[in-house]
């Protein structure tokens, strides 16, 4: 005998178009389901005349980190692989699995407008400060959108420390670039 009962299923969300969006979604999911302090941190710094990338994800008592990768996408991909290998049950629910920041091509981590601002910030920072600088980006799924992405530039042994915030990575990078413009000029003129 067939049942006439209707079973409701939640629709499974589609995969985020960009890898950064997948990280935002994953961080939000973990904050909602495991620990509200879930945080993604990215560090960008010089390594022997190239740019190095580190990434850390923390939630509750857990933290995973990777360091010394040569691109944004490589660092974030390696971080996720490490998280999945150490915490395989973290994203078991079908709606969570589609959010995972995996299998994104190099050109699919940031939309073009964000990539342009982000690349310009990194490039000008490298030009202005040479080998003594660090950019730090922190993403938290905060209730107030303007506080979700925090950026900080630390240069010249801490003599130049500038921070900014924004609702998106692009907004935060643009705000940091604007705030740091005077310092960029000061250090470039000293060269």
What portion of residues is helical? 25-40%
Quaternary structure state of the chains depicted: single chain
Give the amount of beta strand, in percent: 25-35%
Overall form: elongated
Q: What does the secondary structure layout of this molecule look like, with pairings?
A:
Elements: H1 19-33, E1 39-47, E2 50-59, E3 62-69, H2 72-86, H3 94-97, H4 112-129, E4 133-139, E5 149-155, E6 160-166, H5 169-190
Antiparallel strand pairs: 1-2, 1-4, 2-3, 4-5, 5-6
Helix pairs in contact: 4-5
Write structural notes for this entry.
- The protein has 191 residues and is an alpha+beta fold.
- The protein has one domain.
- The protein is 39% helix and 25% strand.
- The chain has five helices and six strands; from the N terminus they run H-E-E-E-H-H-H-E-E-E-H.
- Strand 2 (50-59) and strand 3 (62-69) form a beta hairpin.
- The protein is elongated, with a radius of gyration of 19 Å.
For the structure shown, list the relevant keywords.
single chain, 6-stranded antiparallel β-sheet, alpha+beta, 39% helix, 191 residues
